[in-house]
Design goal:
Layout (H helix, E strand, L loop, with lengths): L11 H18 L9 E3 L4 H6 L7 E3 L3 H9 L6 H39 L1
Antiparallel strand pairs: 1-2
Helix pairs in contact: 1-3, 1-4
Length: 119
């Protein structure tokens, strides 16, 4: 039995982008700041192979929205334990960045619709 992909997973790549922007802002104040990136402990090292990660370690740090998009795309191909681990690790970032990611996505869609109607 696989764990159902949460509806919030659609916004995870945008959340990663928000984290990146947040870290860049903090680096302006503290140049040595490295940030707090989400990571996944890949016990069997299968997730890294599925997403094409060059990292062979057991930890996969998600520092790019494209990596998160690959994880979301192969959700049903990864094991239950890894799915649970991803959901647990993303929970804190969802609480902090989800509303902003939803707003930006919907605002982009709205702006495109307005531009289409104006032309």
């Amino acid at each position: 039995m696989t764990i159902k992909k949460p509806w919030k997973a659609e916004y995870w790549p945008q959340i990663i982008e928000e984290i990146r922007l947040d870290i860049e802002e903090k680096k302006k104040v503290k140049p040595n700041y490295n940030g707090n990136w989400p990571y996944i402990y890949d016990y069997a090292r299968t997730l890294g192979k599925k997403i094409g990660s060059p990292d062979t370690g057991q930890y996969i740090y998600i520092q790019d929205a494209r990596v998160m998009q690959k994880i979301v795309d192969v959700w049903h191909e990864i094991g239950e334990h890894t799915q649970s681990n991803i959901r647990r690790n993303m929970k804190g970032y969802e609480n902090q960045h989800l509303l902003k990611a939803i707003y930006k996505k919907r605002k982009g869609e709205f702006d495109a619709l307005v531009a289409e109607n104006d032309s």
